[in-house]
Each structure stands twice: as C-alpha cells, then as structure tokens.
Amino acid sequence: MIYLAVGVVIAVVLTLLNLVLMFGVIRRLRELQSRVDAAPSVLPDAGLPAGSPAPELTATTVSGAEVSSVDPARPTLIGFFSPGCAPCADRIPEFVDYAGTGVAKVAVVVTDLPAEGDDYVRRLSAVDVTVQPGQEAWVQGFAVTSYPTLCLVSSDGVVLGSGNTFGDLPTLSTV
C-alpha cells in the first residue's frame, strides 16, 4: 500500500511540475507573438532614400530594346522582382497599372536562372522587362536589399521614393 501512495504522490508532483512548465512556455510564446506583431511587416530601407541621385543605368529588355533608369521626359518607376517571392507576385498587377501612362515603367526580374523568370516576364509584358542576375549593376546601384523593391525616379534623375509597397512611393500628383 505504501508503494501505491508514493507512486500517486510522485505522479501528482510530476503533473504539477509539467503544468507549471507549460504555463511558462505559453507565456513565453505570447511574448514572442507580441514581438512579431509589433515588428514592421516590410523591411526598411528597401532602396535608395528619397532625394538621392539615381544611378544612370541602361539595360536591354527581353524584347531587345534599350531602357534607362532615368527618362528625361517623365518619371520612371523601377520594380525589382524575384521569382519565388510571394509579395513580388502580388505587386506585379499594381506595378503594371501604376500611374497609367504618365510614368515610364521598367521591371527588373532578378534571377540567376533566366528560365525561372519566364512567368514574371509574361505577367510584366506590358512594361519594359529586363532579366538580370542578383548582383548586377541595377541591384547594386539602387541598393536593393529585399524583394519586391519599387523605386520612383524623377525625370531629372532624383529618387522620389522607394520601398517594398506602393504606399512607400509618392503619388504622381505630388511629384
């Protein structure tokens, strides 16, 4: 009978210890979740800051045309997209529709394997598209740190705004 009583006491003590540890784990998970909820949903400094000079770069599009990062006749919207990036896929329709015809649009699909970018090239067919490896001059010149990165450049070569979403860019009425 004594063994039964000792066994029950040990089981109760272990159950209480387990309960205390579980409450500690739950509290810790709630703290971590609150940190995640408080963190920004996009990465800061996704491109060159507003007011900085834009690099004057040229590239050949998939259709063979030459494009420039600065169009002297109108502002240029440059988008950097990476295949396999879900937010990039979400931004493509917005990128194509942004500003109607008032802005020159250049999409840079960044991939080391050009075949990976075929879907993006097809979806971006309404704009000038260039496919480049990850560390080419455009990515470095515009200080791309995450994807998608959007950058609006004025006709005189000054960055008007950049970021991961269109909310980070100025509206054309303020340009």
Automatic annotation (TrEMBL):
Q: Report the superkingdom from the record.
A: Bacteria
Q: Where are the transmembrane segments?
A: 6-26
Coiled-coil-forming residues are none
Q: What Gene3D superfamilies is this protein classified in?
A: Glutaredoxin
The UniProt record lists the Thioredoxin domain at 48-175
Per UniProt, the keywords (alphabetical) are: Membrane, Transmembrane, Transmembrane helix
Name this protein carries in UniProt: Thioredoxin domain-containing protein
Provenance organism: Virgisporangium aurantiacum
